[in-house]
Amino acid sequence: MLNCIDNSGATLVECVANLRMKRHGKVGDRIIVVVQKSRSMGDSGPGGTSAAAANKVRRGDIRHAIIVRCAKKVQRKDGMVVRFDDNACALIGKNGEPLGTRINGVVGAELRAKQQSKILSLASMHV
Amino acid sequence: MTSPVCQIRPITIGNNFLRRKPHQLPHKSFWSSSKAAAAIANTFPSPSSTDSLPPSSLLPSSDKRLRSPWRILHDRPNSPSKRIKTYPPPPSSPKLHPFPLADHTAAHIAELDPNGTRTRLFDRNNPDVPNPGDILLATFKTGDPFAGVCLSIRRQGVDTAILLRNRLLMTGVEMWVKIYSPNVRGIEVVKRAKKKARRARLYYMRKPKHDKGSVEGEVEEYLRRRRLIRSGAAMGVKGEKMTGKRGR
């Protein structure tokens, strides 16, 4: 179970497969998820665009996603070790473009090494 | 499996030759009778018993089997009085370095921290040493600075590191920062804990009940104050050097 932190409409997703290898996922990994909870139309806030964005996914959808935070400690090349309190991801389409237009929350800087700079630039903060 | 036998064999043959007296050697007669030996004797003016043996390159190709014992004879003349040169043993490294790991760590730290500021800051005898529970700010040569509550200090020689915890955009983030890392520019104490923590590891602060939350406000205030002090020092006391990035 991961939090979904973009504005695609999903809030909670379940990981069913890791596309990198059959192992634990890390920051930057592409995974297949099933949307478990999604924002309803009313909650998506004012503005037609965000309501339209909230329509993108609904409960039960199978989507691809990129992990952006993980609670497991990750050691970087310079010796620093980073861990987050939760696991989070951002949904992407089949072509690798993010579904949402915004990412609310901090993401791991490992995304740059994994060529996910699009998500990194959408994010408001990276560590 | 046959190779050791092959290695041993020429030596034993050589020993047999050494045990014999010079006149018993079968090859001398062979060489003195042959014309080639006469020619070689002309080129080498002192044909004594064993030293006059021709170099191996001049040997006829049919005599390959006999080469190795001849060579041994040539290399080791029949003189039992020769002294074997002995060498003193190499200097004992355990005696040179009784504590190799400590020496290595000290050398490593001296290389990474030539001024000794980092070592002094986290020295236990330092009265201003940061303690778990304090709010620390680490600045890096690459990347943004990171501030947070210090949950633990791991003192392990060159691997000495601090664990900082902060809350960024509603998400808890923890970071181990190695104090001797060349990427770390400085570590500053933003705010001391009101009371020294009675634990060395404050992992309970991960729980929502004890979580300090974001330290952004404290860091902002500290940076503002530091800017004021620095500008005042620059105007007032000229020439006095600031203590550096490691504010106390």
From TrEMBL, chain A:
GO process annotations (BP): translation
Superkingdom in the source lineage: Eukaryota
InterPro entries according to UniProt: Ribosomal_uL14, Ribosomal_uL14_bac-type, Ribosomal_uL14_sf
Keywords: Ribonucleoprotein, Ribosomal protein
Single GO MF descriptor: large ribosomal subunit rRNA binding
A GO CC term attached to the entry: mitochondrial large ribosomal subunit
Job description of the protein: Component of the mitochondrial ribosome (mitoribosome), a dedicated translation machinery responsible for the synthesis of mitochondrial genome-encoded proteins, including at least some of the essential transmembrane subunits of the mitochondrial respiratory chain. The mitoribosomes are attached to the mitochondrial inner membrane and translation products are cotranslationally integrated into the membrane.
PANTHER family per record: 50S/60S RIBOSOMAL PROTEIN L14/L23, LARGE RIBOSOMAL SUBUNIT PROTEIN UL14M
Annotated family: Belongs to the universal ribosomal protein uL14 family.
Name of protein: Large ribosomal subunit protein uL14m
Gene that encodes it: mrpl38
From TrEMBL, chain B:
GO biological process terms held by the UniProt record: translation
Record keywords, A-Z: Ribonucleoprotein, Ribosomal protein
Pfam family, one: Ribosomal_L19
Compositional bias annotation for Basic and acidic residues: 62-77
InterPro entries xref list: Ribosomal_bL19, Ribosomal_bL19_sf, Translation_prot_SH3-like_sf
Lineage: superkingdom: Eukaryota
Low complexity compositional bias, start-end: 43-61
Gene Ontology CC: mitochondrial large ribosomal subunit
GO terms, molecular function: structural constituent of ribosome
Annotated region described as Disordered, given as residue ranges: 43-95
Family assignment from sequence similarity: Belongs to the bacterial ribosomal protein bL19 family.
UniProt-listed PANTHER family: LARGE RIBOSOMAL SUBUNIT PROTEIN BL19M, RIBOSOMAL PROTEIN L19
Protein name: Ribosomal protein L19
